[in-house]
Amino acid sequence: MKSGASVYHMPFKPPGSSFTIDSSTILNITGCDLDVYLVDDDKLRTKWVCRTVCPDQGITEMVAMHNCNGFGCCRVELLTLDADGVHFKFVRLHRKSNTGASSKETSQLWDRISITTDGYYGFSLRWNIRDQPTCVAAMRNWTTYACMSRHTECIDSATYECSGDATCIDGGMASTNGYNCICDIGYTGNPYILDGCSNDKGYNPIPSRTDCTRWCGNISVQFPFGLEDGCFAREQFHLNCTNRTSSAVLLREDLEVIDMNVDKGTIKLQFDAVSDLFVDFELSVKWAAANLSCLEAQQNRSGYACVSMNSKCLPVNAEYDYVGYHCQCSDGFEGNPYIQSGCRDVDECREPNICQGVCRNTEGSYYCTKCPPNTEYDAAKMRCTTTKQQILFLGIIIGLSCGFSILVLSFSTIFLIRRRSKYIQNQLRKEFFRKNQGLLLETLISSDETAHDRTKIFSLEELEKATNNFDPTRIIGRGGHGMVYKGMLSDQHVVAIKKSKVIEQCEINQFINEVAVLTQINHRNIVKLFGCCLETEVPLLVYDYVSSGSLSQVLHADASNGLSLSWGDYLRIALETAGALSYLHSAASISIFHRDVKSSNILLDGNYTAKVSDFGASRLVPIDETHIVTNVQGTFGYLDPEYFHTRQLNGKSDVYSFGVVLVELLLRMKPVFTSESGTVKSLSNYFLQEFNEGRITDIANSQVLEEATEEEINGVASLAERCLRLHGEERPTMKQVETELQTLRAKRMNSSQPDPRNGEHMQPRSLTQRSRSARQLSSQPGGSQRRYSLEAEFLSSASLPR
Q1: Do both 627 and 748 map to the same domain?
Q2: Which of these, 298, 488, 511, 698, has the minimum number of CB atoms within 10 Å of its CB?
Q3: pLDDT at position 784, please?
Q4: 3-class SS string, 51-100
Q5: Is there a catalytic annotation at residue 82?
Q6: Which is catalytic among the residues 596, 614, 640, 654?
Q7: CA 198 to chain centre
């Protein structure tokens, strides 16, 4: 890249009209702060395809290409077969660094633009004969017809332009653009010359050497395969042993043989990873001795592969075509059918329990006879054994006497152990209460009269009674850090109890401090912390039970379950959530950054009122500080990219995550989804690309388009775009977000929106109707599982309870 130059061009044209770019070509564009465009030279237009940004000034090319997700690298997929070429245009973005000044970047990504292929086949070209458009047209003039050999087939070179998420240069029609020739099935060679396609005669059933090496590591390389010249039956069966002390047999440079079975005609291969997105994988494939039928192969005995006695010829079929034949030992025989006397008799009598008597092996088979008199077949010993009479009466008396004595002794021992165990448990509870700073928490609660009214310190006995001694049937959620139980207190109050597995001793003081702060939060749209128990090794948290599920479950529920909320309900839920987050950021006694805002952490009560939950990842911030430096934590798809790179957590990180929730409300798509082409995509990147190109109404959900006004859709989309900006200083505060949503909802409440489906005025569905729908849902088969299990609230957090 040159100093002062902002625009760069990179055209590529195939070397002639008969050549076209092959399909499934994926390119990685590496560089910093670039907008990448695809230029159509014929139609004189450009199309934006991707963007690269570098929040981390020192990012390396290797790190950028490892993920290629927009940070230093973006990916372009080309699916075109008849384009004249590819023309890229790169425009350098002028941005300020994270520090607000133009610092000198240290990475090579700031000095150059690199284009590399990302794919197993690289960047390749196809060729075809283009003097005639189709095979039918070519066959009209045999003097210029290219398929010269007998046993050939002509194939039209049809071009199918891409669709969906693929980046195309031309339109969306299929056309023919010349033709190619191939040999018929069972024939190989060059179809473009006379007699170029010939019947398969390349198999040599007798190796020319007798001192062939047949082992590579622990793999037996049996004929017709071989490692040296003269040791294999045909050139395709020549293997390369890269290391004779370990198993590393290569069929080709990219296919490693790890096992083979010549009798079954299978070979197990291992493929190397084709990119950073794939791992090595194994594949078992069939193979044929020659591309002939069994009848054709047997007519030429000198080239027939099944040379062993007691062998047979079997066909090898692909999914749609016949491939050839292979050999197999006859029933009752095993070994290598490709060498003389390679098939040996199988001793079936060695198989366990093949006969319920005496087994006799024969050539290629076996037969069974009954056990002799006064004997019976013993399945454990796999032979006939003599029958013995046992004295049962004496054994019964001895057994009963011993059993009664042991029973009396056991009851006495259990009684004493239980008494001692109960005493030890009481002592342990007192010790845990002391270690978990129970006295300190009691002091904090007693010093705050309002906290004392809302917060309780439960005894372990109370919570055991509420959960039927932590009955496994009461589990409503489980995860890597513990379990969540549903319980009912003595005053009939339904609660959710989080029981974690482990906690660091150094976190106990922080846990007590955060419990004391959370008890002071009193907001109608935040899940209430009801209390805690400190009589266990890990403190237990008690929350109010929220019954109607999460926003994520309602958004992504199956349409057939009968539960649906209107656009007005979703707008209200978004406003309530924004108000709760704004309260945490600026109105609480101490600022709290949630750090894991997502739709599954926005719960809905019986009246479908939003309740922000899951403070396991939250962090407390003193009033005089604007951010804190902490380890990156959150949920993929919602995570603020600036926080990911700088590890500086602030209120704008919650704003970014809330912006993803707004996009979910508009598109009704999950934050990470799989496109039609199979590519895993980020919802935020997909939304920003469509928004910048003015296609928000094309991607909005049909229900949103039906119920919301254009002003509401554009307003929410514009607000989401500002929340999702890469730099935090460009995003609004949660208070500003709340104000804009409040304005949108006020306009909707003041205007009577007609229902396009029936021509009547839309009336908000009553809370009674919504509750009835929820009850109907829970009464359906499997409906109780659709109700919110609180697993998302308490166990999706990556940290232990706070």
Answers
A1: yes
A2: 698
A3: 35
A4: EEECCCCCCCHHHHHHHCCCECEEEEEECCCCCCCEEEEEEECCCCCCCC
A5: no
A6: 596
A7: 48
**Residues 674 and 784 reside in one and the same domain:** yes
Is 381 domain-assigned?
no
Closest CA to 577 of 605, 529, 609, 546: 609
State the residue for tokens 């189709």.
134
Report the b/e string of 284-303 with b at 16+ CB within 10 A: eeebbbbbbebebbeeeeeb
What is the pLDDT, as a whole number, of residue 688? 93
Q: What are phi and psi of 398, to 5 degrees?
A: -60, -40
Determine the structural domain holding residue 495 and report its residue range: 435-544
What does the block give as tokens for 454?
């809302």
Contacts of 299 (CB under 8 A, 6+ apart): none
Q: Which helix (H) or strand (E) holds 402?
A: helix 392-435
* Mean pLDDT in consecutive groups of 10 residues from the start of the chain, 802 residues: 89 83 82 92 88 86 86 83 76 65 60 82 80 91 92 79 46 65 84 88 86 87 91 89 74 78 87 56 86 88 91 88 90 92 90 83 88 78 66 71 89 86 83 80 68 72 91 75 81 85 61 65 84 85 83 81 82 94 79 84 88 68 57 77 84 91 94 88 92 91 92 94 92 94 91 48 38 37 36 35 32
Pairwise CA distance, residues 197 & 154, whole Å: 13
**pLDDT value at position 776?**
39
Whether 583 contacts 612, CB under 8 Å:
no
**Domain edge (last residue) among 544, 564, 582:** 544
C-alpha to C-alpha distance for 304 and 297, rounded to whole angstroms: 6
Q: CB under 8 Å to 529, separation ≥6 — which residues?
A: 455, 515, 518, 519, 521, 541, 542, 543
| Whether residue 624 is found in the same domain as residue 583 | yes
Q: What's the confidence (pLDDT) of residue 9?
A: 92
- Over residues 423-437, the pLDDT tens digits come to 888 888 888 888 877
My answer on whether 570 and 704 are in the same domain is yes
Residue 370 in any domain: the answer is no
From the list 55, 49, 37, 48, the residue with the least C-alpha distance to 109 is 55
d(CA 725, CA 718): 11
Residues in the chain: 802
515 and 579, same domain (yes or no): no
pLDDT score recorded for residue 507: 60
Paired sense of beta strands 482-488 and 475-479, if any: antiparallel
Number of Cβ atoms within 10 Å of the Cβ of 406 = 10
Name the percent of the chain in helix, strand, coil, to the closest 5: 30, 25, 45
At 741 the pLDDT is: 94
pLDDT score, position 177: 77
Question: Rounded to two decimals, what is the model's pTM?
Answer: 0.44
DSSP class of residue 370? Answer: P
What's the CATH code of the domain at 449?
3.30.200.20
Structure tokens belonging to residue 594: 């949630």
Q: CA 488, CA 495: separation in Å to the nearest integer? A: 6
Is residue 371 situated within a structural domain? no
Query: Given this model, what pLDDT does residue 785 score?
Result: 36
Half-sphere exposure of 411 (CA within 13 A, CB side): 5
pLDDT of residue 627: 56
Euclidean distance between CA atoms 441 and 659, whole angstroms: 37
Q: Note whether 147 and 111 are same-domain residues.
A: no
H or E element in which residue 509 lies: helix 508-518
Query: What CATH number does the domain containing 668 carry?
Result: 1.10.510.10
- Please give the structure tokens belonging to residue 60: 């390396």
Regarding beta strands 529-533 and 456-458, do their DSSP bridges make them parallel or antiparallel, or are they unpaired? Answer: parallel
The total number of structural domains in the chain stands at: 5
pLDDT value for 626: 58
What backbone phi and psi angles, to 5 degrees, belong to 261?
Answer: -135, 100
Identify whether 385 is part of a domain.
no
Consecutive H or E run containing 507 = none
- Write the CA distances from 556 to 665, 668, 720, integer angstroms: 10, 7, 19
Is 499 flagged in the annotation as binding? yes
